[in-house]
């Protein structure tokens, strides 16, 4: 599970995946400018987006043919891109929040499978 606490360490909630209680195997985790919590799930090979209260919002990365397995996350606030790393020496870069979304806090995730507005080809690191 992903356990979220307040600054003082008091438990806020635990997230066990979508649907609730599923076999979440959390890996990389980060937040974005809209206070969404992004979690790599090794079980479903997706990136799950939850809100600041632990409610599931969307799958951001649906496994491409079962090949890509997200392991690490980093959100670049300057370019508004999410960097997703895999154990196969691959990094995929996505954009799902525009600069305007970040300024107005009006982004609404779309249903599963449509959360990405665009993606760039994988970058191979050797």
TrEMBL record:
SUPFAM superfamilies: Calcium-dependent phosphotriesterase. Residues 104-113 have a biased composition (Basic and acidic residues). Residues 116-126 have a biased composition (Polar residues). Residues 104-126 are annotated as: Disordered. It comes from the Eukaryota. This is Tripartite motif-containing protein 3. It comes from Magallana gigas.
């Amino acid at each position: 599970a992903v356990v979220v606490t307040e600054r003082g360490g008091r438990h806020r909630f635990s997230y066990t995946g979508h649907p609730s209680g599923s076999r979440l195997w959390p890996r990389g985790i980060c937040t974005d400018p809209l206070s969404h919590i992004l979690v790599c799930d090794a079980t479903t090979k997706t990136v799950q987006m939850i809100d600041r209260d632990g409610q599931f919002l969307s799958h951001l990365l649906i496994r491409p043919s079962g090949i890509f397995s997200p392991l690490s996350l980093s959100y670049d606030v300057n370019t508004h891109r999410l960097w997703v790393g895999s154990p196969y020496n691959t990094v995929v870069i996505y954009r799902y929040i525009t600069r305007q979304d970040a300024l107005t806090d009006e982004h609404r995730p779309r249903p599963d499978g449509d959360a990405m507005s665009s993606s760039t080809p994988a970058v191979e690191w050797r």
